[in-house]
Write a structure and sequence with these properties.
This protein is an alpha+beta fold. It contains 10 helices and 12 strands. Strand 11 and strand 12 form a beta hairpin. The protein is elongated, with a radius of gyration of 49 Å. The protein binds adenosine-5'-diphosphate. Adenosine-5'-diphosphate (ADP) binds next to helix 9 and helix 10.
Length: 422
Amino acid sequence: MDSSGVPTQHSDIQLLRTRLHMLRHSVDEIDELLERYISSEQKLHESQERFQLLLEGVKDYAIFMLDTQGYVISWNTGAQRIKGYTADEIIGSHFSIFYPSADQDAGKPARELEIAIQDGRYEEEGWRIRKDGSRFWANVLITALYDSSGQLRGFGKVTRDMTERKLAEEMRTQLQERNHQLELAKEARSQAEAMLRSRDEFLTVTAHELRTPITSLLGYAQLLQRRFDQPSPERDQRAIKAIISQAQRLNHFTTMLLDMMRLGTGHRTLHRTELDLRAEVGHIVSRFQMLYDRHTLMLAAPPEPVIIIGDEHSLEQIFDNLIQNAIKYSPLGGTIAISIELAEAHARITIADQGIGIPATSLPHIFDRFYRAANVTPEHISGMGIGLFIVKELVTLHGGTIDVTSTPGQGTSFRVSLPLKP
Ligand code: ADP
């Protein structure tokens, strides 16, 4: 090529052509890159638009962003619907405006952002305030947002209005509470009714039990009065015996009533001493055996003393009552088997009769006050339904237990278990 740049030789022309070709190639490449850039820009824009549409379309959730200090920088339709502010009204405001004043004063909003930074997210349910000042129950999720270099860029906040669910829950709780109160009231009422029934039964029993001996005492006393004119020692003796026996019956009845009252109110005190149960039960059995000849009382006991710590008078009452019942409810006679066995730290005393038995439906109630089983009628077998109540209370005061098994028409077994002296 010469100084004016005109190709002088064939090789120069060739070189120029090659350069031109390369230049065109580069231009094509730039063109292609440019096209690709424009298309990706377009795609990004489209995707941002779609995302924006999605955000806008979500109406049930308030979705918005806060800057690193907690100021609102974006706002969606859901947020406007739930909280009542338009985007123009709220963007730039601090998000603490959504909290009740007590929470604001307590520094709750700032603390929630701190937790979101620490843990990545913060979630809770709580009361929030709408633009018009009304409260709503919100489910809130705050997420800390970081850029690719790990720097905090702000927070995403998703809030859902759960007021209806909360109100439904509160209503359910209130309803449950009301039901509970209703149950308590019902229970109190049925307890009061049971007490009234018990009082009525008590009065009936008292009237019934007092009338017979009083009538009889009165009758014999009047008889004795008339006899003063024509004395007859034999008849007078009978009248006096009758008066004594009826007075004893009254005495027994009033003692039982007093015992029942004392046990019911926790006023019965025990005088505990070391006792040999085998000897105590042995005495009671011999005493009964002397009084009743239609029944055979059999006692099986260990050869050595059975020592417990107990109140002698109470123990006498317990076994007196149980053996007396075994006799009373075996009107045809039969054997009454009394046994004392040692079972680990306890003495087990069983009183088994061959009497009328107790119907299964009555069994759960026979330790209740004034309860008499369905198969007894006061005309045939007298009683007040207090004895077993007293027995059970006394056994319990001694740290023991009592249970019963029975087959109607065949017999009944009461089993008392009392702790041995350690
Ligand atoms: P009661 O004065 O009526 O005998 P208790 O409290 O001693 O009162 O007994 C309550 C009820 O238990 C009795 O009315 C009776 O129905 C039943 N009962 C108690 N012991 C026996 C028994 N050995 N056999 C059958 N029934 C019994």
